[in-house]
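Predict structure. Input: Transcriptional regulator, 325 residues.
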Amino acid sequence: MKLQQLKYLKAIKDNNLNVSAASQSMFTTQPGVSKQVGLLEKELGVRIFERRGKNLSGITPIGEKILDQVERMLALEQKIKALANEHLDPSIGTLNIYTTHTIARYLLPNSVSYFTQKYPNINFHLQPTLPLQTKGVISKGHSDFSIVAHDVGMDNDLVMLPAYLWTLGLVVPEDHPLAEIDKPTLKQLAEYPILSYEPSATGRQVQDAAFEKEGVTPNYFMTVMDADVIKRYVQLGFGIGVISTLAARDIENTGLMYINLDHLFEPCKAWICFSKDILLQNYMYDFLSSFSPHLTKSLMENVLMQQQSSEKLERLFDGIELPVY
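Output follows.
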């Protein structure tokens, strides 16, 4: 068994069983990848992939188990390399941040500016998160962090830390009847078509819970994940928009008005997530604390020691006030 063979297995899985695409991603030839996979299967005595003619059609049950271990082994390889690189030169490395458009636009600029100036030799990449419906929406690479404004569910491979709280605000055209009301009620909101987030989004779930509690049925005219798209359609007169306060306040020269909804909806929690297999390096600690000041290095070290116990993790954050946006 060779490490390169394991990398080929992962590349095939990551490229939806397309061996040609996998070979291109590994900068090698398709026959070479197929040969090495065949040699590994012969060595192990099991089929990792199901085949239909010359094409791969699926992953066998034992192949699924093998690939799970392959991903763990390759993550360990990256961790060992990161450990050696930090020892040789702690000023170099990579940081991949996956996040939403709203977070990238309104919350990250200060941290990115600070980080890139302090660590000019660190390769910094800012990338969009995958849609909520996509399986495995949180990237788990050896230098990947995800900052998301929605619940990510249970995942034993992830460390999930509370980053901040975010609130919902209302945007309406300046000549809209609600523009004259400082504190609209849920019943008043329900009188108009509402443009807001998709049902699976945390912000939408908070709205639905509030409406249900009051026995009010909202009229969701349109659901979109991008707050700027919602604001655009509110401008066009399709309804009123309930979105993140960060985006709702950014309405200069738009003909829209922002209305605070803190009296109606509870704040939502945002999270910083990363793989438990990551070797946190000093520049990573620095980035985390620049974005969420409560995530100090000492707290993070305690988190990593207690990561197997959710109850102990919760106690670590008792009494910590999260920033509210």
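The chain is about 40% helix and 20% strand.
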